[in-house]
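Hey, does this match?
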Amino acid sequence: MKSKPARGDFCVIEALFNRTKKLPEHRQFPVCLSAAFPLSYLCRIFKKHLNKTPTEFINDIRIANAKLALEYTNRSILQICEEVGFDNTSHFYHLFKKDTGLSPKAFRELSSGSQY
């Protein structure tokens, strides 16, 4: 029989999610959260409940924000990359392509063509 997840685990995940909404102010792993909880604990509950690390979780949110910006704004890809919290453009391109199967430019072209 599976045990129910601890409510406290979800509170920690929710706290990290709420802090990542303020990107790009929190470019790195939120220091205030990692100071309140040991990193090993955070990694363990993220893997247990979300099947990803806290960094993967934050990067997923950043990529989702980048997709919205590419689709609904005309800001440059470099500007969007920086705005969503990536310091390394090639890392952004790599994660974006891994998530969508497209480069940011191809994603923008495809999504702008589908709006009309």
